[in-house]
């Protein structure tokens, strides 16, 4: 029997996922982390990116998180996300529009644009699109 770990993914709005998994992959501040059952305890900040929950060899779920905190205990992984979206629910048109607006704001040299905010919006839109792209590659 394969060992599993309990995973909870929650955002400020709702619980996104709760269940057992063989592995969890998350975009931590210092790089991508892979969490297996009985992993050492860990708390780290998350950066915008994809959280992937591997249920078994044939089934996994992808989620986009805009940031947050990852807490790992030997038998439970908790993702407390600022925003979490199922990869299949990402609105590609909205992400492309947000990307274009952020790029336009970064090109605006008048000084009226908030450069840091535009960079954050661009990073978020890019990671949503990358998460959606990875989902499409895995399911095709």
Task: Note the topology.
Layout: E1 5-11, E2 15-21, E3 23-28, E4 31-35, E5 42-46, E6 49-56, E7 59-65, E8 68-73, E9 76-81, E10 84-86, H1 92-107, H2 115-139
Parallel strand pairs: 1-9
Antiparallel strand pairs: 1-2, 3-4, 3-6, 5-8, 6-7, 7-10, 8-9
Helix pairs in contact: 1-2
Q: What amount of the residues lies in strands?
A: 35-45%
Average pLDDT rating: 85
Rough shape?
globular
Rg from Cα = 16 Å
Given helix and strand content, the structural type is alpha+beta
Number of strands: 10
What is the tally of helical segments? 2
Strand order of the largest sheet: 2-1-9-8-5
Spans where pLDDT lies below 50 across 5 or more residues? none
Helix and strand string, N-terminal first?
EEEEEEEEEEHH
Oligomer: single chain
Overall domain count: 2
Text of the CATH class of the largest domain: Mainly Beta
The CATH fourth-level homologous superfamily of the largest domain: F0F1 ATP synthase delta/epsilon subunit, N-terminal
What fold name stands as the CATH topology of the largest domain? ATP Synthase, domain 1
**Largest β-sheet summary:** 5 strands, mixed
CATH architecture of the largest domain: Sandwich
**Percent range of helical residues:** 25-40%
How widely separated are the two ends?
29 Å
